[in-house]
TrEMBL record:
This is aconitate hydratase. InterPro entries: AcnA_IRP_Swivel (IPR044137), Acnase/IPM_dHydase_lsu_aba_1/3 (IPR015931), Acoase/IPM_deHydtase_lsu_aba (IPR001030), Aconitase/3IPM_dehydase_swvl (IPR015928), Aconitase/IRP2 (IPR006249), Aconitase_4Fe-4S_BS (IPR018136), Aconitase_4Fe-4S_dom (IPR036008), AconitaseA/IPMdHydase_ssu_swvl (IPR000573). Keywords: 4Fe-4S, Cytoplasm, Iron, Iron-sulfur, Lyase, Metal-binding. GO terms for molecular function: 4 iron, 4 sulfur cluster binding; aconitate hydratase activity; iron-responsive element binding; metal ion binding. It holds the Pfam family Aconitase. It comes from Oryzias sinensis (Chinese medaka). PROSITE patterns: ACONITASE_1, ACONITASE_2. PANTHER family: ACONITASE/IRON-RESPONSIVE ELEMENT FAMILY MEMBER. It is found in: Cytoplasm. GO terms for cellular component: cytoplasm. The lineage of its organism: Eukaryota, Metazoa, Chordata, Craniata, Vertebrata.
Amino acid sequence: HVTLNTHLAHGFHTGQAGRGFFCYYRLPLSIRVFLEAAIRNCDGFYTTEGDVENILDWQQQQDKAEVPFTPARVLLQDFTGIPAMVDLAAMRDAVAKHGEDPSLVNPKCPTDLIVDHSLQIDFSKCFFICRTETAVKNQEMELIRNKERLQFFKWCSKAFKNVNVVPPDVGAVHQVNLEYLSRVAQVSDGVIYPDSVVGTDSHTTMINGLGILGWGVGGIESEAVMLGQPVSLTLPQVVGCKLVGSINPLSTSIDIVLGITKHLRQAGIAGRFVEFFGPGVSQLSAPDRTTIANMCPEYNATVSFFPIDRVTLKHFKKTSEPLSRLAHLFPQRTDRKALMFLQVIEINLSSMVPHVSGPKRPQDRVAVSNMKADFQSCLEEKVGFKGFHISKEKQETRVPFLHCGQEYQLVHGSVVIAAVISCTNNCNPSVMLTAGLLAKKAVEAGLTVKPYIRTSLAPGSGMVTHYLNSSGVLPYFSQLGFQVIGYGCATCVGNTAPLPDAVVDAIKQGDLVTCGLLSGNRHFEGRLCDCVRANYLASPPLVVAYAIAGTVGIDFEKEPLGKGVFVVYLSDIWPSREEVQQTEEDTVISSVFKDLRGRMEKGNTFWNNIESPDSVVFPWDPKSTYIRCPPFFSNLSKELPAPQSIENAHALLFLGDKVSTDHISPAGSIARASTAAKYLQSRRLTPREFNSYGARRGNDAVMTRGTFASIKLLNRFIGKPSPKTLHIPSGQTLDVFEAADRYQRDGVPLVILAGKEYGSGNSRDWVAKGPYLLGVRAVIAESFEKLHKSQLVGMGIMPLQFLPGQSADSLELSGKERFSIVLPESLSPRQQLTVKVCAGTCARLRIDVIIFQHGGLLRYVAQTFLRSGSQPRAGAAERAPCP
Ligand SMILES: *[C@@H]1O[C@H](CO)[C@@H](O)[C@H](O)[C@H]1NC(C)=O
Ligand SMILES: *[C@@H]1O[C@H](CO)[C@@H](O)[C@H](O)[C@H]1NC(C)=O
Ligand SMILES: *[C@@H]1O[C@H](CO)[C@@H](O)[C@H](O)[C@H]1NC(C)=O
Ligand SMILES: *[C@@H]1O[C@H](CO)[C@@H](O)[C@H](O)[C@H]1NC(C)=O
């Protein structure tokens, strides 16, 4: 499809498109994904030729041009999915009322709705916490209301094209996305293109580790994508992260992931894309990559992108076939040095040498190669964090003792405790597998662990035990004495059995500095045992290695680990990264996939048994307090309405600076005194059954009443934080909803006055829909949070900005004036409009005119439908090429 547009194609080959051509082969691969999507979706409306050229001209346009991005698919969770699906269902109603075919209303792109644990939590809460009589009723309520939502989802999955519902209990969203929904390439209408996604899950960015561009968005943004509107973003700056050198064999995935994260954190790359390249990348496994990608918030990058390569394909168990079809986008053999980046950060993987921490504090890191020398210096140093002050003549003390009839010796540095622990913050399977494979090779080489050393294995979860067992390493752990002692971080340290008396006596007799080694927790949990004075944190395989050596006073490079059949060095038995990755792919990942498939089947059985209507339009249940048909499409007409001027509006609210989305559309519980509570009570619900705003976002009546119902809302009409406002004509103080309702009944349009950064904070579904249904036509503020501005436009509310330097105060507004805004026949972006406030003053306008003109995105999509019988850009076949 690069050749789809001849003008552009001409430009690619001749450079005559001027600014763009020479750049294509040097574009970062993540930007090529943008470019491809822009060309494929170029309709001259949402995505224009100018957008394509801006992307092609990335070098000049980065951080400047606003560009559209049409992701291949949308990922929704059940909570965020409800309002989006309810709107589409309502649109079907509206279209049917006008005599058109409602079955044509569908999401524009594949939409996966994952009914994750948020439903299940409700169940388990009831099962485990409350078992009283009333609780049983409560539980029934939960079941009923979940049933209602599940039935609605079931209807959606049957009625809509492009909607796939993943049933409850299959897995967490990000897991299902990584393991089930992701593709190397998407294929539709014979076009093969790269997968990409926006999702309402905060872990969406993990997917970039698999070469799939994606990030998290709010529910309202994902709904816009479903309606066919691309995501709009500033063309990102891309920082190249070049990985060179080879990974130190003793380093684990965790060392590498944390090492790379640390480098990136120091690089100051907030708000940028990171793209990995260089000869070192292929050493990172798919799980390493997704972990790094998931840690984006730590270094404030928007995404960390690992272009598709052999490792990715192997993970997907794919041959290179689909990749070859995407070869122009993800070249495998070109010299990636040729790509341009804003900046290149080079990370030498060899520089990430393995460390242990100790002997007294976790922050005292010692390179493993330096361990012997460091311990020796600790013996000599005077007492402190790194000193035990053992006199010269006592440093060579040896104390013989008997254990189970055998004679052994203890010296300074002898290991007496070795605990392999897999904690939640250390759960990368490859690390435990490395330890297991090391144990296996040690046993095969005839090595043993001295029996007086207290060895233990705490796998952290049954899952870890399961994969250690299925990869076949568990028996070797036990042969070395590492028996499974239980699960969980909290217990693992305390669970270590006391040291043998003979060992304790020998330590006391020689005043010895003996050592405990512990993997897992990054914090010292306190000493392992009173008489063990040196405590080190090390990776699980190093714990095994030091246990076999029996001492920390060893230089693994120069000294053998022990003597089995032959003299054995650590490097002889340390498993290679390839071997570990292969084992991980074969046992852990394949069993996770298998497990997921099993749960999917079970989930589907459950799902198939849910009853739901077969109708094309949804049969709304008037009794439902969770799912209601929203009035967005009332009064819809086939004709596009001319922009309607606003005459004699009142200010509903007079707000200050930094009014956040939390003030506009509070989440959380529904206060008993609120209008939402009154509504629910009128529907015969008791306060216990109110549930939260979050759970009720499929009900516009609750959500509209909840708009501006935050008790923290500081409204200058009231003068103190409160969810109330002044109804100006009557002078009465009312709940915001009640005031708005009265204005609406009197036919009075509304505006909101605000200060700086209106609409900051997390995206919420109802931040624009709520004010729209309250009758708000414009928000006049000193400045807007960018995302919120586009949300307002999307609902047909005008975001108007005071001219620079002006504010409500500088214009001496009391808020009680009447506001009139005359709109010209046609609006152009960044146009200045006059807002008449008694005597005339000015506010500046900068809005996305087309969408605005037609009363917001929802109504626009529905109207286009009525006129043409199809949504805008209704699919490849109907799409006209760029002019
Ligand atoms: C990476 O570091 C190692 C050891 O410090 C060095 O030998 C190697 O040359 C470096 N590699 C590159 C590509 O800089
Ligand atoms: C990331 O952004 C947050 C908030 O914008 C800031 O507080 C923090 O210092 C940033 N961290 C880095 C590593 O840039
Ligand atoms: C390990 O797997 C074997 C067979 O697959 C099974 O019999 C055994 O119970 C498992 N052991 C553990 C500790 O899970
Ligand atoms: C519906 O349309 C009629 C006629 O165009 C108009 O008078 C009325 O105000 C509209 N109602 C709403 C809620 O927009």
